[in-house]
Amino acid sequence: MNIYISFIYLLSAIGFIIGLKYMANPLKSKLGNQVSASAMAIAIIATIYWYITSDTIPNGVLVVALLLFGTFIGKYLSQKYAITQMPELISLFNAFGGLCAMIIGINESLIQDASHFGIVDKLILLLGVVLGAASFTGSIIAYYKLSGKMKLGINSRIYAISTLIFILILPLIHFLQPLQFNFLMLSIAVAALALVYGTLFAIPVGGADMPVLISILNAVTGVATALSGIIFESTIMLLGGILVGSTGILLTMQMCKAMNRSLKTVLIGSIKMANTTSESNVEQNIQSISSPETATLLAFSKNIAIIPGFGMAVAQAQKECFEIQKRLEDNGAKVSYIIHPVAGRMPGHMNVLLAEANIDYKDIVDMEEVNHNMQDFDATIIIGANDVVNPAAEEDENSIIFGMPIIKAYNSKQVIVLKRSMASGYSGAVNTLFDRSNCRLLFGDAKNSLQQILEELKRI
Amino acid sequence: MMESFYLSQIDGVYVIALSIFIGIEVIKNVPAVLHTPLMSGANAISGIIVIGGIIQLLTTPLSNIPATIIASLAVVIGIINVSGGFFVTHRMLAMFSKPKKK
Predict the structure, then answer these.
(1) CA B99 remoteness from chain centre
(2) In which band, very low, low, confident or very high, does the pLDDT at B83 lie, cut at 50, 70 and 90?
């Protein structure tokens, strides 16, 4: 009988792999997600079926009820958040995954008699609990940082390391037994410390590095899952977890590469963060522009670039972008959207938003494609992007973002920056683009400004 | 062996080593557009941890109240991760495949 369940698990594993493979392809990604979801469903159903038919414990109805209840909550949460808040939502879901790994680990040490586990099993279980717990609190911090409820970064690195040392010492005490305490207490204590560790680990990570943090935590949850898979001797959990872990780490490295930062600098970025606060008082020589002037300028431009950033997401201005694009194209101009690999709060964040506004995939170009001939653009409109166009990344060695590849917007003939205020970008660095002679600032809410520009364009 | 799907240790090591390679191969060269949905989808897959909770709940008698409560909690939290993850990925991807131009 068991062989059939193994076979279903195998099918489900293949489903995950095909699902991930398809997800990496723009044309098949939607199908890929459905394949993964189905693979998950059959794995869950097979597990329930197997245990219900082979054990006498009649919890089947309870399990199904809990699953339906949780599915309902998950669906509700996934619809409740605006599309601009996707990164927050992903870290929230990841927090749930981590929490689940933690309590399953603790519960396992509660259910099983301590003699059931060998020392290796115990260590694997503890590691799973630690990773789950750290991923949980880390993701919660990331959630709050992304939603802007928490912007402060204190350098808690030293406390984090001390916590980590405690986490390592506790099992030693348990196993070498200078002090007697049982395994359940050990796993609870370790979990509690790991919760603290996760918090301290995530707090100093700088705002702009948030996507990297989420990606790391995602991989960590994957590894925690895989470790639980070893404890439960479940191939599908093991395989699923490892897949998530390895894709997560690869994704993290790709993102670091896009930002030209090493993982190490991301994780110790805090120290630099603290120093930039004084920098933001620097006087800047800026020139402002009005909406009608902007409209006139655009009406006479033939080749226009739009660089969206997180500000566009906040202002929900993507539909206005599309309206303006249509208007300008009717005038015979060419409009392209240039997306920085880490624009917004997460790679691909801007693409999702522009897709929501029906903007054609073909009008969106990557930074590398156009960066060498930015001077061809008569006008570049920057909507709520800041750090990704900041020339300080190329010029100022002391800048926190130095070395990050940027869109060379300063090379285009005229740059217009739509901005709410003179506040600095997410990284806190001063944007030296605003000092340039070809750069003008249009203050106000991006959505309002774009609407005004659109009205003016209709009049011209 | 036919009677069980339990792993021998070396089988486990095989699964781990091969899965790492598959994971890396599969998402190599992903366009940046798909990074966010992919992360979200992978996150949903890591929710397979819920199976651990299900196993606990189905192998623990109800009389063990603390363990039952904790396992129930784990099942709910885990499935929120799974369903929420897949639904939100679907929502994001649905925007890419929306019919363009009217």
Answers:
(1) 30
(2) very high
